[in-house]
């Protein structure tokens, strides 16, 4: 068994912010169930920070058989026909996908990725996988970075060398990659944010910053809302639609109306995935968990349509392989179901907030006006970027890293 180490407790301020972090019963948290993954009752009854949580080192080692099976399935792909000339209008373009699958079969090297990833410090805590990079100075600003769907912790790996003055924590969302998802309903933004706060406390961080995009933006938002005494500031690059400000039509500005009109047009052509994943994720999961080419089509379309410049084939194949070998596509899609049927009502977030606007998706989603975001967030920094789309940490890594350094330098 791998050696274990226990969480290090700092002084009184850490204790005041983190002791008893789970004492509040989850049943009152936006419809979150009180059942633990093992069925023993509320998290409050079982997890109280102050008892040292066990954090275990983790190493990635995918079985040869899983990779061999993946290759076999890719070679046996049955390709559907496509209407000539429609391009991407009906979904993933056939030739684009065939090229990506060919690269996945013949050129992609998971073992090379595995070796690079294992040079980082991986751990697990209470079923949550995370990467932890401490600042060499020993005085880094604690910062937790949260990915979205259909991403993973890989989204932030190229950014780590740029964040040398931070103590960076990059967890995998529950049900993504190497993080287990509890076999319960209601694993919503608030559930995850409580897990993240518990993780940061277990690492000894009583005050920290947070950043994220997509679901990571939602988790970061609720983390700041529920733990303002601990979260010094947040930086996000997308607005979650189910947390967007609720504003009467008559109160909207012209800029806000224009933005929402573009957003509604995007919904008409791009929102189908969300409808099925928020109602029947299990049904679509059977096919995606059984066909790697189908998985590549489904996720590849999002990376293509939501990006300004689609990431490299190598990165896409690493992301696809991670979903495939961990069999987490179905569990990841439950984020949509859980947040729809166990919604969290966001109120005004008083925590200092930086928003990076990356609104250059291949299929435009619109550029949110600052005034619209100020209805929900205490915006202290607002930066509009000339490039980059939904997956800003991957597409414009240096730009996001620069934003994080500039914003948190003034907050420390």
Short description:
The chain has 412 residues and is of the alpha/beta class.
Could you please describe the fold and organization of this structure?
With 412 residues, this protein is α/β, with parallel strands linked by helices. Helix content is 41%, strand content 14%. The protein has 16 helices and ten strands. The chain has helices at residues 12-18, 43-46, 64-75, 94-106, 110-117, 189-202, 215-226, 254-270, 272-277, 281-290, 292-305, 313-326, 329-341, 370-373, 392-395, 397-411; strands at residues 5-6, 54-58, 122-125, 128-133, 141-146, 166-171, 208-212, 231-236, 349-357, 377-384. Strands 1-2-3-4-6-5-7-8-9-10 form a ten-stranded mixed sheet, with helices on both faces. β3 and β4 (128-133) form a beta hairpin.
Please write the string of helix (H) and strand (E) elements: EHHEHHHEEEEHEHEHHHHHHEHEHH
Number of domains: 1
Tertiary shape: globular
First-last Cα distance: 39 Å
By CATH, the topology is Rossmann fold
**Number of beta strands:** 10
The CATH architecture classification is: 3-Layer(aba) Sandwich
As an assembly, this protein is single chain
Radius of gyration: 21 Å
Main sheet characteristics: 10 strands, mixed
Low-confidence stretches: 1-16, 22-52
**Helix/strand structural class:** alpha/beta
CATH class type: Alpha Beta
Helix content: 40-55%
Task: Output the CATH homologous superfamily.
Answer: Alpha/Beta hydrolase fold, catalytic domain
In spatial order, strands of the major sheet run 1-2-3-4-6-5-7-8-9-10
Count of DSSP-assigned helices: 16
